[in-house]
Amino acid sequence: TCAFPTSISSNVPEYWFGSASFSWIAGDSNSSYSWNVYEGTDTSAAAVATGTTTSTTDSVTGLSSNQLYTFVLSAQCNNNETSNSASRTFTTNHVIIGATSEDFSGYTFANYAYSEMTAAGSWYAPNQDMDFICLQGGSYADSSSSFYIGASAGGTDGTSGDYFYGGSYNGTAGNSSYILTPYLDVTSMTYPRIAIDYHMHNDSGYASSVGDLTVTVMESDGTETDVISLSGSQQDGLSSAWQTAYGDLSSFMSEEIRIKITATYGGAVNFDDFTVEERPSGQWTGTVDSDWSDASNWQDGNVPDSETSVSIPSSTPNQPKIFSNYDPVIYNLNIDTNSNLEINENGSLTILKDLTNNGTVNVNSSSILSISGEFRNIGSVSVNGDLIIQ
Fold first, then answer.
1. What does the pLDDT look like over 256-312, one tens digit per residue?
2. Secondary structure E strands in 249-302
3. Which residues contact 385 (CB under 8 A, 6 or more apart)?
4. Which of 320, 347, 318 is nearest to 333 (CA)?
């Protein structure tokens, strides 16, 4: 008799993408094995991968992201008989390439995150001492209306959409809970960042103070880096406006990463609208005059802020000037060939990241240009004030 193999196990390790490994215990007289992998659970369809081995382990690559598969194994024996087949299902890790967003509208109101975020390689939350629960603005989480909502609306869009709340009603001091995102591949992006809406206040009355909300980048070597940290009350009450926090991902563009969102015990710690996006780009148009502070001189109608990567092209009617007693802070700055930037007396410009200058920069007397990142200067710079490169 050619016995079939037993105890088939499948394994999708962390940071494996489109891959899985398998192991099993040999049956009596087994000499070799053949296997097929099918998309979903329909094993009458064509296999998407096949293999043979004389070992009791094997692996498969080249599969799709976040897909359920069925692994079917049969054995060949020394007497040329073939065993009955045995099978096992598995789901590949979920990797998202480039920009993405999640507003949590697909989750069920009043359900704990761990009851729906069950796929370890996608949005995932374990059962913890303190848990995240899905809420909706303007609704109570129980039929007796005894459990307060976390906020009166969800996210910065101001609607009553679903969002997640990590509160203190089902935990004790010192507890925390976390949710993991799918894996993220931001290697094709230019200046990637995380945006997440938050609402943190103590209107629930379950704790004497509000906990913390932390967003952490997890790398394949085990390194964890906090990119957003909010501690204590950030809003006054249920009806206070949501706010948005940003985390820079430009240092994590060499491999796939994963994000961990953690809340600690205390008050109402809410989050919504998780987004991976390009940092906004502010392009100078100079259609009105040379005043940097005039929103009409910018393509999107907004004066750049500390989250904006600014570009100054050459083909504009007016080139920008930062006038006295004006001190903008931006993220990046790129000055094209034949373009120029002038910082007037008692003005300043702070660049949190890099300056690439292919044109002309004039730092006048008693003015300041401060650069926290790299200064790539291919053009010309005239400094009669202060140039600070940190």
1. 999 999 999 877 888 999 999 998 889 999 999 999 999 999 998 999 999 899 999
2. 257-264, 268-278, 281-283
3. 343, 345, 363, 364, 365, 366, 367, 368, 369
4. 320
Helix (H) or strand (E) holding 115: helix 113-116
Which CA distances in Å does 226 have to 75, 173, 194, 259?
Answer: 49, 22, 12, 10
Residue pointed to by tokens 């704790």 = 207
User: In DSSP terms, which residues pair with 312 in a beta bridge?
Assistant: 335
Report the alpha-carbon distance of residue 364 to residue 346 in Å, rounded.
9
Cα of 143 vs its chain's centroid, Å? 34
Paired tokens of 333:
């700055």
Query: Other C-beta atoms within 10 Å of 79: how many?
Result: 9
Structure tokens at 371: 């650069």
> What is the Cα–Cα distance from 292 to 322, expressed in whole angstroms?
6
In which residue are the tokens 């069950």 written? 118
Q: What is the CA radius of gyration of the chain?
A: 28
